[in-house]
């Protein structure tokens, strides 16, 4: 299977799981934003755990090469604020907006158009950003295991334990 087909299959499976977990529902999105329903947080943390284990297992087996992107603190903070504002304004994040559109929710089109418009603005302002925002807090290509000087599996194990305790906390609180 070529990479394009693998991406299509992965996207379909991810969309199916988004729909089955009901995270494309507006009430779930609003519940997450108001910290009343942690379904989306649990779904995404589960995805992060599976991704961490999978990527580092494939890396350790020599099947993939990690492509670490440079850390730009100011750009990450600014991007996170824009992302959060858009999510709060629309009620969908990028993945769930595509899933919502797939379910026939036309309000998601505005978010998708906003993402395309934002990507265009970013592309047009990139030369300016490269000289300013992308230089503020530039730490280069670093990873947390490198910063802490520990094996990545130690951090993965600690993160998995943290996530399991967090899930238990959410369940006890009915979140």
Set down the secondary structure blueprint.
Blueprint: H1 3-20, H2 26-33, H3 39-60, E1 71-72, H4 73-90, H5 94-102, H6 108-131, E2 138-140, H7 144-148, H8 152-172
Antiparallel strand pairs: 1-2
Helix pairs in contact: 1-5, 3-8, 5-6
Overview of the structural elements:
- By secondary structure, the protein is mainly α.
- It has one domain.
- Helix content is 71%, strand content 3%.
- The protein contains eight helices and two strands.
- The protein has helices spanning 3-20, 26-33, 39-60, 73-90, 94-102, 108-131, 144-148, 152-172; strands at 71-72, 138-140.
- Strands 1-2 form a two-stranded antiparallel sheet.
- α1 crosses α5 and α3 packs antiparallel against α8 (152-172).
Number of domains: 1
Beta-strand percentage? under 5%
Instruction: Give the terminus-to-terminus CA distance.
Output: 40 Å
Low-confidence stretches: none
Order of helices and strands: HHHEHHHEHH
Helix content: over 70%
Order of strands side by side in the largest beta sheet? 1-2
The residue-averaged pLDDT reads 89
The 3D shape can be described as: globular
Main traits of this protein?
175 residues; mainly alpha; two-stranded antiparallel ribbon; 2 strands
Briefly say what this structure is:
The protein has 175 residues and is mainly α. It is built from eight helices and two strands; from the N terminus they run αααβαααβαα.
